[in-house]
Amino acid sequence: MSTDANPTAGKPAVDLTDEAVHWDLSHSLSYGQYLHLDKLLCAQHPLSHHHDEMLFITIHQASELWMKLCLHELTGVLECVRRDDLDPSFKMLTRVSLIQQQLLHSWEVLATITPSDYSAFRNSLGTASGFQSYQYRMLEFLIGNKNARMIEVFRTEPAIYAQLERMLNSPSLYDETLRLLSRRGIDIPAPIIDRDFSQPYQASKAVTAAWLGIYHNADKEWDLYELAERLIDLDYKFQLWRFSHVKTVERIIGYKPGTGGTGGVSYLKKALDLRFFPELWAVRTSM
């Protein structure tokens, strides 16, 4: 019986002699070049000497990449809704749901930073805060949570401010969904179809009734019913994300104010009851 502690000892290396590996990449595109890894992997610059600041930066940068992909997918969904071609949107919304799972798991990794770890480099952040994530704000505007005050923090970045202002004043995904219902002959009140899209959406009993009709006739209105269920999943995962955010912040800094000037946990808790699609939640009680 072998007493060798290493079970791979003595095994030959993988034989590559019959593999057509492109060893010389001097005149062709490499993996690193395609992904611009020279820029991506050089974008982490801790301002302190504390070990955990690298994790803090990496988690937030990775989250911003996932949010960029969510914006890409949800913009595609918006276009599908506008042209009344819903089938392709279901794959996009499924993908967004899985991305949201990745974002949820990121809080678990971030929560490995202890209060003493974070306090060792927190002052390095200055006034930098997730409150200033313009991609997160764009996601909320795109999906349907409009708040004009939120863009004021971007006044010093004119290009970003203009982008957010356009998103604020454009119909959201939910606005376009209700417009689609109207085009399909479903009774949606005119003031909801032609409203000031920069203002927060106000729930309507008439819209709840319209969705109730779709749910009661799911076989006939299957694509609208399926869209509604995918939207509920999007909203549900956002609520889970917000809750995980609150509990992670509470676990690490307690009730200290946030670096961006908010009350921290007390501010984050205000968003826990926000719903992008209020009538889709209300219809469940009505059925």
Give a brief outline of the structure:
This protein has helices at 31-34, 37-40, 53-82, 87-110, 115-121, 134-143, 158-169, 173-183, 190-193, 205-216, 222-253, 265-270, 278-286.
Label this structure with key terms:
single chain; 287 residues; mainly alpha; 57% helix; globular
What does this structure look like?
The chain is mostly helical. Helix content is 57%, strand content 0%. The protein has 13 helices and no strands. Helix 4 (87-110) packs parallel to helix 11 (222-253), helix 6 packs parallel to helix 7 (158-169) and helix 10 (205-216) crosses helix 13 (278-286). The mean pLDDT is 94.
User: Describe the biggest sheet?
Assistant: none
Number of helices: 13
From the spread of the alpha carbons, the general shape counts as globular
Strand content: under 5%
Please estimate the helix content: 55-70%
Number of strands: 0
Structural class: mainly alpha
H/E element string? Answer: HHHHHHHHHHHHH
Spans of at least 5 consecutive residues whose pLDDT stays below 50 are none
Mean pLDDT: 94
Euclidean distance between termini CA atoms: 68 Å
Radius of gyration: 24 Å
Write the layout of secondary structure elements.
Elements: H1 31-34, H2 37-40, H3 53-82, H4 87-110, H5 115-121, H6 134-143, H7 158-169, H8 173-183, H9 190-193, H10 205-216, H11 222-253, H12 265-270, H13 278-286
